[in-house]
């Protein structure tokens, strides 16, 4: 059991997403294939999504619970950009 985790590419990294299990929205910060076993004998690997919510606190959920949040909040740049109107 050398590595306890590995980073996994995901199409929604850095985007605003929703955790369908809790309904909480935030920025997808990382997807990690992580050994969640508490045993040295057996390994149990799961892909976990790390989401940072509006308060800045990160939480994890199964990557299968992550979906794009289409009602994205406006960033300062999009509010200032007159061309997007």
Quick synopsis:
The chain is mostly beta strands and 85 residues long.
Describe this structure in words.
- The protein is mainly beta and 85 residues long.
- Helix content is 6%, strand content 41%.
- The protein contains one helix and six strands.
- The protein has one helix at 76-80; strands at residues 5-7, 16-19, 25-35, 45-53, 58-62, 66-68.
- Strands 1, 2, 3, 4, 5 and 6 form a six-stranded antiparallel sheet that branches.
- The longest helix is centred in the C-terminal third of the chain and has 5 residues, at 76-80.
- It is elongated, with a radius of gyration of 16 Å.
- The model has no long low-confidence stretch (mean pLDDT 85).
In N-to-C order, the SSE pattern is: EEEEEEH
Helix content: under 10%
Q: Write down the overall mean pLDDT.
A: 85
Structural class: mainly beta
Rg, Cα atoms, Å = 16 Å
**How many H/I helices?**
1
- Indicate the proportion of strand residues: 35-45%
Low-confidence stretches: none
Total count of strands: 6
- What oligomeric arrangement do these chains adopt? single chain
User: For the report, how would you describe the main beta sheet?
Assistant: 6 strands, antiparallel
List keywords for this structure.
6 strands; single chain; 1 helix; mainly beta; 41% strand
SSE inventory with pairings:
Blueprint: E1 5-7, E2 16-19, E3 25-35, E4 45-53, E5 58-62, E6 66-68, H1 76-80
Antiparallel strand pairs: 1-3, 2-3, 2-6, 3-4, 4-5
């Amino acid at each position: 059991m050398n590595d306890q985790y590995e980073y996994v590419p995901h199409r929604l990294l850095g985007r605003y997403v929703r955790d369908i299990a809790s309904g909480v929205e935030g920025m997808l910060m990382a997807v990690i294939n992580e050994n969640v076993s508490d045993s040295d004998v057996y390994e149990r690997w799961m892909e976990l999504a790390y989401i940072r919510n509006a308060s800045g606190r990160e939480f994890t959920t199964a990557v299968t619970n992550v979906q794009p949040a289409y009602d994205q909040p406006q960033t300062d740049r999009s509010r200032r950009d007159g061309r997007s109107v």
